[in-house]
């Protein structure tokens, strides 16, 4: 009896397998008879069958960030994707109704904004996708980006694409105090064609400079990446910038001002270009000694003593010159090397008469290229070195301008948070 039951079971199994094979062959679409199950059968997914029964789309839309999210980053935090379908339309608008440009990928499965979003802004997203049967799926989100109050910005020197002198550091100034200095310093990536080691130094909780041990090698290419987006700086603030920039170090120009001999020697790539008579700071207001970096160039500028603490008994500036020609800043506190048209010619090369600046012979209007002030201005780049020696004043502080070269390499490294 058991053998009979076994034989019946085998026959039934064979019949079942035969039925499956027959059904599979018919499912392919024969010439004689149409299939009774067009492309379905056991291969149809549960989702597809459920969608057919409910006549809904199988496309599944995903949106980042979550709905009603706050503090969203403005670079790469917004993204739309779809599975089992393609994106038909993505509309993103800011609170005031302005539409945000974005691009759907070539395969139709993802979308992202074309540009950086604005901080502290509420956005809305509306998405439509469709599955292979053309059935539509919809999804929407609203969110708010990180606010200026809870995020920090890093302002950088030099400018993107600028050609600079060999003394130019990479200097970052933050608009809010940084508590986690190590995290922020580690997020700055600097690469140079010269291969010089580059180290950061914190002058304060809002200023971070980078430089090599010695001046940049001439003709070096430098690439900088600031990877701050979403980075927690402590104190409840996060970064929002992902920014890259590059600059080129040009020829090497190092000028030495001898306050005692009233002369400046200008050396380009190891060769003396010119020795220029100068007038440095007077005995009462001597020029700082030390290495200074040209941080700003102004063909003409106003100089008023009141802005740097030189006032008379009435509180007025001891001087107020509206059109100082060919001025180049050497310190934050107001030291410049500039043209001088108001002093007698005998002053240059003969005596020190200024309030701390280095003066060169020039004319009013800054329109005579033959003047020493004009020549030096035209020959100089931001980042060039001007070193002052033999002045009765103290050495300039490293954080007074871009003048971190007045610090030993050991002391510079000690100021790194890494």
UniProtKB/TrEMBL annotation:
InterPro entries: Big_10 (IPR041280), LD-transpeptidase (IPR050979), LD_TPept_cat_dom (IPR005490), Transpep_catalytic_dom (IPR038063)
Domain of life, source organism: Bacteria
Region: Disordered, residue numbers: 25-58
GO cellular component: extracellular region
Pathway of action: Glycan biosynthesis; Cell wall biogenesis; peptidoglycan biosynthesis
UniProt-listed CDD domains: LDT_IgD_like_2 (cd13432), YkuD_like (cd16913)
GO biological process: cell wall organization; peptidoglycan-protein cross-linking; regulation of cell shape
Pfam family, one: Big_10
Active site per UniProt: 338 (proton donor/acceptor), 357 (nucleophile)
Residues annotated as signal peptide: 1-25
Keywords, ordered alphabetically: Acyltransferase, Cell membrane, Cell shape, Cell wall biogenesis/degradation, Lipoprotein, Membrane, Palmitate, Peptidoglycan synthesis, Signal, Transferase
Location of the L,D-TPase catalytic domain: 253-389
GO molecular function, one term: acyltransferase activity
Identification of the protein by name: L,D-TPase catalytic domain-containing protein
Source species: Streptomyces marincola
């Amino acid at each position: 009896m058991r053998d009979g039951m076994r034989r019946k079971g085998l026959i039934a199994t064979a019949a079942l397998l035969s039925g499956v094979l027959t059904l599979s062959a018919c499912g392919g679409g024969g010439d004689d008879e149409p299939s009774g199950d067009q492309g379905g059968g056991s291969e149809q997914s549960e989702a597809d069958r459920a969608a057919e029964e409910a006549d809904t789309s199988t496309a599944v839309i995903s949106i980042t960030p979550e709905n009603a999210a706050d503090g969203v980053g403005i670079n790469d935090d917004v993204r739309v994707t779809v599975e089992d379908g393609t994106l038909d339309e993505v509309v993103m608008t800011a609170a005031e109704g302005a539409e945000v440009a974005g691009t759907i990928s070539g395969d139709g499965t993802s979308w992202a904004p074309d540009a950086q979003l604005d901080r502290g802004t509420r956005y809305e997203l509306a998405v439509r996708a469709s599955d292979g049967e053309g059935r539509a799926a919809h999804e929407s989100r609203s969110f708010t980006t990180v606010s200026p109050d809870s995020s920090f910005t890093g302002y950088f020197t030099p400018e993107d694409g600028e050609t600079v002198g060999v003394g130019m550091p990479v200097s970052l100034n933050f608009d809010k105090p940084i508590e986690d200095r190590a995290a922020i310093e580690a997020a700055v990536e600097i690469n140079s064609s010269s291969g010089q080691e580059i180290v950061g130094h914190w002058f304060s909780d809002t200023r971070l400079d980078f430089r090599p041990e010695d001046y940049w090698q001439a003709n070096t290419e430098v690439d900088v990446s600031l990877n701050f987006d979403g980075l927690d700086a402590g104190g409840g603030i996060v970064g929002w910038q992902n920014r890259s920039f590059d600059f080129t170090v040009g020829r090497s120009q190092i000028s030495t001002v001898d306050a005692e001999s009233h002369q400046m020697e200008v050396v380009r790539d190891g060769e003396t270009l010119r020795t220029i008579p100068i007038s440095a700071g007077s005995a009462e207001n001597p020029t700082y000694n030390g290495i200074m970096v040209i941080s700003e160039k102004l063909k003409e500028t106003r100089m008023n003593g009141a802005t740097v603490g030189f006032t008379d008994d009435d509180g007025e500036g001891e001087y107020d010159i509206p059109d100082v020609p060919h001025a180049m800043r050497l310190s934050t506190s107001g030291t410049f090397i500039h043209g001088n048209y108001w002093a007698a010619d005998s002053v240059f090369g003969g005596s020190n008469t200024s309030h701390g600046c280095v003066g060169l012979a020039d004319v009013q209007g800054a329109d005579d290229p033959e003047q020493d002030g004009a020549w030096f201005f035209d020959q100089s780049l931001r980042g060039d070195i001007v070193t002052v020696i033999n002045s009765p004043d103290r050495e300039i502080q490293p954080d007074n301008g871009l003048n971190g070269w007045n610090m030993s390499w050991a002391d510079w490294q000690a100021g790194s948070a890494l």
